[in-house]
Amino acid sequence: AQSVAQPEDQVNVAEGNPLTVKCTYSVSGNPYLFWYVQYPNRGLQFLLKYITGDNLVKGSYGFEAEFNKSQTSFHLKKPSALVSDSALYFCAVSLYSSASKIIFGSGTRLSIRP
Amino acid sequence: KAGVTQTPRYLIKTRGQQVTLSCSPISGHRSVSWYQQTPGQGLQFLFEYFSETQRNKGNFPGRFSGRQFSNSRSEMNVSTLELGDSALYLCASSPSNSYEQYFGPGTRLTVT
């Protein structure tokens, strides 16, 4: 069965510093990997995806993620954090070629201090 | 384009009652998925509809059901509500053969 783990419940970073939100996955085939962000009282917003190709994926708001097949990881990164990046971040994995039946991680709360 | 809309945004029901939630996808999107979000269980997939047919289903009891209309609007129904059904219910729509989901703001259901 496929699963995704976000080992950190919370990540605290100072504004201007680089940030990393970790994600590891477990699937029996080739994964489709996603990152979503959720702001308070809002639905999820799509940030980026990895389907195939270049291991470094660039997404919205300056975020990027690196697919590492040997370590089964898909960490989210940003070179310089903004206070406005503070939110709940979800990593997700799917084996299917459509967007359906995605399995989400438990979420990581990112807090950027001024 | 207008985003995904969900109605109502907030709902309070009593245990044993039933509830219907509505989702209007982005124009042109034919796939609609539903998720339940709770602090304890996180985000869990309920089901997905595509062209009025249920395409995938998560591991939820039969009390949870849904449907999709010809205009792609979708409803989900929960019968015989339990306290544990209190959650944020999120709807997401996707264009055909796309990997990206666009989420609505959710309906927060409280069961007392």
Based on the model shown, name its key terms:
A: 114 residues, mainly beta, 4-stranded antiparallel sheet, 12 strands, 0% helix, globular, B: 112 residues, 7-stranded mixed sheet, 11 strands, 54% strand
Structure description:
The complex is a heterodimer of chains A (114) and B (112). Chain A has 114 residues and is mostly beta strands. Helices cover 0% and strands 51% of the residues of chain A. Chain A contains no helices and twelve strands. In chain A, strands 2, 5, 6, 10, 11 and 12 form a six-stranded mixed beta sheet that branches. By secondary structure, chain B is mainly β. Helices cover 0% and strands 54% of the residues of chain B. Chain B has strands at residues 5-7, 10-13, 19-24, 31-38, 42-50, 53-57, 64-68, 74-78, 87-94, 102-103, 107-111. In chain B, strands 2, 4, 5, 6, 9, 10 and 11 form a seven-stranded mixed beta sheet that branches. A four-stranded antiparallel beta sheet of chain B has the order 1-3-8-7, with no helix packed on it. In chain B, a hairpin with a 7-residue loop joins strand 9 (87-94) and strand 10. The interface between A and B is medium-sized, with 25 and 26 residues.
Topology:
The complex is a heterodimer of chains A (114) and B (112).
Chain A: E1 3-5, E2 10-14, E3 19-21, E4 24-26, E5 32-38, E6 44-50, E7 56-58, E8 64-68, E9 73-78, E10 87-94, E11 103-104, E12 108-113
Parallel strand pairs in A: 2-12
Antiparallel strand pairs in A: 1-4, 3-9, 5-6, 5-10, 7-8, 8-9, 10-11, 10-12
Chain B: E1 5-7, E2 10-13, E3 19-24, E4 31-38, E5 42-50, E6 53-57, E7 64-68, E8 74-78, E9 87-94, E10 102-103, E11 107-111
Parallel strand pairs in B: 2-11
Antiparallel strand pairs in B: 1-3, 3-8, 4-5, 4-9, 5-6, 7-8, 9-10, 9-11
